[in-house]
Design brief:
The chain starts with a helix and ends with a helix. Strands 1-2-3-4 form a 4-stranded antiparallel β-sheet. It has a single domain, classed as Sufe protein. Chain: A. The chain has about 120 residues and is α+β, with helices and mostly antiparallel strands. It is built from 2 helices and 4 strands, in the order H-E-E-E-E-H. Keywords: Membrane, Transmembrane, Transmembrane helix.
């Protein structure tokens, strides 16, 4: 009896490891595809919650800070996928606001602002 329980536990653990690795590969592929631009900036914001769904938000802007592409992934399981987010496209990063993804949006825009500040010649 204990052998079956232990084998089931190990099987579920290995399945979780496999699905997590698959999701990490999907995340890296999406970020790589979005960063394949000649110019502009990419910012990733992540919000983790102890209970409830977490959020990953990826923003791509042009050199002026206008959002050209946005994708959001939120969910609890490893089956969550990125979805296009059109509500921010065409807006400047300083004007972006959203109650639902506030922390991840702040993190992504802060990373883009940091990249933009590095590019400014002294």
């Amino acid at each position: 009896m204990w052998g079956y329980l232990l084998a089931g536990f190990i099987g579920m653990w290995l399945l979780q490891i496999y699905l997590t690795m698959r999701q990490m590969k999907y995340y890296r592929k999406t970020v790589h595809q979005m960063s394949n631009r000649e110019s502009g900036y990419l910012g990733v914001g992540i919000e983790k919650k102890k209970l409830g769904s977490g959020t990953v938000l990826i923003l791509v802007t042009n050199t002026e800070g206008i959002v050209e592409e946005c994708k959001v992934m939120n969910g609890v399981t490893v089956f969550a996928k990125f979805k296009n987010c059109k509500r921010f496209i065409g807006q400047h990063i300083s004007m972006l606001q959203d109650d639902k993804w506030e922390n991840s949006l702040k993190m992504a825009t802060a990373k883009i602002t940091q990249q933009m500040d590095k590019e400014v010649p002294a």
